[in-house]
Design brief:
Layout (H helix, E strand, L loop, with lengths): L2 H23 L2 H16 L6 E4 L3 H4 L2 H5 L5 E4 L8 H13 L11
Parallel strand pairs: 1-2
């Protein structure tokens, strides 16, 4: 390995170590928010949203971060912090009968 490559690798490792130290100094809540926002923005299409209990963590503490990526957090009333499959079905049905569609699907 040449001296130049060794120096480049060493610099990369130092930057990586500094990045890990900075991440370790962040609160677990901040790390969780970044994880949730990253995952939702990766798996949702631009026109999709996330359904949450109205007392759910993403609805209460992370809505701004998630909506900043262009996704909507749709809240449903909950009992003991939980929503039911029937509530999700009703929410999805309301979406499809509203007549509002992304531009590529056209409107009904």
């Amino acid at each position: 390995m040449s001296a130049q490559v060794s120096l480049t690798v060493a610099r990369f490792c130092l930057r990586l170590a500094a990045s890990i130290r900075r991440a370790a100094e962040q609160s677990p809540k901040t790390i969780q928010k970044r994880k949730n926002t990253t995952v939702l923005s990766a798996i949702l299409r631009p026109y999709q949203g996330a359904i949450s209990a109205d007392e759910g963590h993403i609805a209460v503490h992370e809505t701004g971060a998630i909506e900043a990526t262009g996704h909507k957090v749709l809240t449903l009333p909950c009992a003991n912090g939980k929503i039911t499959a029937a509530q999700i079905d009703t929410c999805v049905e309301a979406h499809y009968t509203s007549g509002i569609r992304p531009a590529r699907y056209g409107s009904e």
